[in-house]
Amino acid sequence: MTPTLLEKNAPEPDPVDEAITALTAAARGQRIVGAGTANEHSVSADFAGTLSRVLASVAANVGGIEALLKGRPGSWEADYVRQLLRSTVGPTEENLLQYRTEPLQLSLNVEEVFERFGITELYWEAVEELSALEADADETMFLDTATQQEKSRLDVLRTEAAQLTEADTTERNLIQQQAQETLLAVTTRAVRAGNPAAAKLNNVVETRELIDDLWQQDQDSYRHAYAEAARHALSTRGLTMSLEVTESGADTSNPALEDLHSYAEKTTPLPMTGQAPDWNQGKPANALRAAGLTYPARVSIQP
After folding, report:
1. Which segments within the chain are labelled E, that is strand?
2. Do 119 and 261 lie in a common domain?
3. By CB atoms within 10 Å of each CB, which of 65, 69, 91, 298 scores lowest?
């Protein structure tokens, strides 16, 4: 049914008014005492307990006690609410998550984690090593295959490019195009002739692609394993809420989330070993090096 003009212009319901209505109904409710016994009878609802649970759930949903009270954290009202909530969820909010009614969002930046673990350094060590091998093979192939005319032509193009200003974009693009055409012709001839340096260059390029793919796979695998570790931690605490792991920076503003993140990070198996991070040799990357699990080594043993 298409909404009428009045319905379209109707104001949004006030959540405070709706909360008052819901809490009023709860306060007027009844509860059964001694159910199933001869003394079974109904009494007024335990509104204090209900209100405490409602406030705890709201605090858990928005991110903690202080997140709930950030509008006026120093007011006398906030002080009383803070005392009530600490009595309900614990002085360090250790029981906060059990009151949450919304799906839990836990933030994870895998690149930041890998940086602290030293794994990012492992990756860039491989990249730098391959870049050096690529440059060496490329130079050897060119020197072996290029004619004197082609070598002279590239020298001229380099000289011309060095004389250009930043504003000479058209001329610079033309020089780059001519240089690329010359290099492509040399490379094509070297490959057709079976030049050893060309074969080595191709192998280096393929290895770099494999390592880049493995680097991405490691991040994806860790993110999935981290989510599973966090869900396991929730399950052991008797919490069955759904969990979503986002890709922004790790959220440690909420003590309950900080504890959950810390547990997941300590127990999440690394994709290289299938085991939790080993800090006995400093950063976990040191243990990976000692085990021969660098990126070039892992690529070479891929099935």
Report:
1. 30-33, 41-44, 104-107, 243-246
2. yes
3. 91
Q: What is the pLDDT of residue 3?
A: 63
Residues 235, 87 share a domain = no
The span from the CA of 211 to the CA of 125, in Å, is: 11
Name the token pair of 180: 């690329």
Please report the sign of the dihedral spanned by the C-alpha atoms of residue 106, residue 107, residue 108, residue 112.
Answer: negative
Nearest in space to 149 (alpha carbons), one of 185, 176, 195: 185
Q: Is residue 280 domain-shared with residue 202, that is, in the same domain?
A: yes
- Looking at the structure, do residues 89 and 202 belong to the same domain, yes or no? no
Distance CA 93, CA 73 (A): 17
Residues 135 and 52 in one domain: no
Q: Residue 160's pLDDT is what?
A: 87
Token pair 């003590």 in the structure block, residue? 255
Tell me, yes or no, whether 87 and 219 share the same domain.
no
